[in-house]
Structure formats: C-alpha cells, structure tokens
Amino acid sequence: MAFLLSKTQFVRLLSTAAATATKTPYKNQILSNELVSQYHRDGFLLMEDFLTPKEKKDLIEWTNEIQNWPETKGIIQFVLFIFHCLFFLIIISLFWLCFLILAQFIRIFLFSSF
Q1: Which of 1, 37, 70, 89 sees the fewest Cβ atoms within 10 Å?
Q2: CA distance 63 to 26
Q3: Which residues sit opposite 48 in a β-bridge?
Q4: Are 28 and 49 in contact, with CB atoms under 8 Å apart?
Q5: How many CB atoms lie within 10 A of CB 47?
Q6: pLDDT tens figures, 23-81
Q7: Residue 31 near residue 40, CB atoms below 8 Å
C-alpha cells in the first residue's frame, strides 16, 4: 500500500517529522533530506510502507465499516421535500383561484340579465 501525498499533507508531515523523530519506532514516518529533495524535484512524494501492517488492517476494516453503514437522508432531502410540498400547495391554490374566477364568469354570464 502506497500513499501519494499532496502539498498540504507533505508540509504537515514535514513540520511534524522532527517532533516525532524521537517518539516513533517507525523508520518511514520521518522525512529524510532525500525525500524532501525528491518532493521538491517531482512535486509529489510516494511513501511506500507508510503504515504498519496493523494500521493497514485497521484502516481497511474502518473503511469497510463505513462503506456498510446504511444510507441516511440529510438536510438536502428534507429541504427538497418542503420545497415540493410548497410548490404543490401553490399549484393547487392557483387551480382553485382559476376555478373560482371561471365560476364567477359562468355565474355572471348565465344568471345575469342583459
């Protein structure tokens, strides 16, 4: 498993490398001068074996767990539902208004004397 780091991730990793140098047992979490030069030369940094086997396993399990979560409806669906309800009420109101106007014209023309 390899990771392609963006500029933001690279800067974050570079800034924390010195702080983690004495705390971590993993040799691949510290950026060497060669890796920094490679990033500046190529514009990206490909980190092989960036995670330990246990971290890889945990990451895969976590992503599988998230992928299996049931789909939930968010605020967008709620807003669309409200919008459709209001639109439907406006259309019904317009039809009712047209019916009342038509009924008024029919009453005037049929029951009025000329």
Answers
A1: 70
A2: 23
A3: 2
A4: yes
A5: 18
A6: 444 454 567 788 778 888 888 777 777 778 888 888 889 889 888 887 767 777 888 88
A7: no
Structure tokens at 88: 């439907």
Query: pTM for the full model?
Result: 0.35
Cα–Cα nearest to 51, from 40, 62, 38, 39: 62
Yes or no: say if 34 and 45 are a contact pair by the CB < 8 Å rule: no
Maximum distance among all Cα pairs of the chain, rounded to whole angstroms? 104
E runs forming strands in 1-114: 2-5, 45-48
Are 30 and 17 contacting, i.e. CB atoms less than 8 angstroms apart?
Answer: yes
Q: Residue written as tokens 């992928």?
A: 67
- The residue length of the chain stands at 114
How far, CA to CA in Å, does 80 sit from each of 1, 46, 66, 76, 92? 41, 43, 26, 6, 18
- Alpha-carbon distance of 3 to 50, in angstroms, equals 7
Distance separating alpha carbons of residues 5 and 13, to the nearest angstrom: 9
User: What is the rounded CA–CA span in Å between residue 98 and residue 100?
Assistant: 5
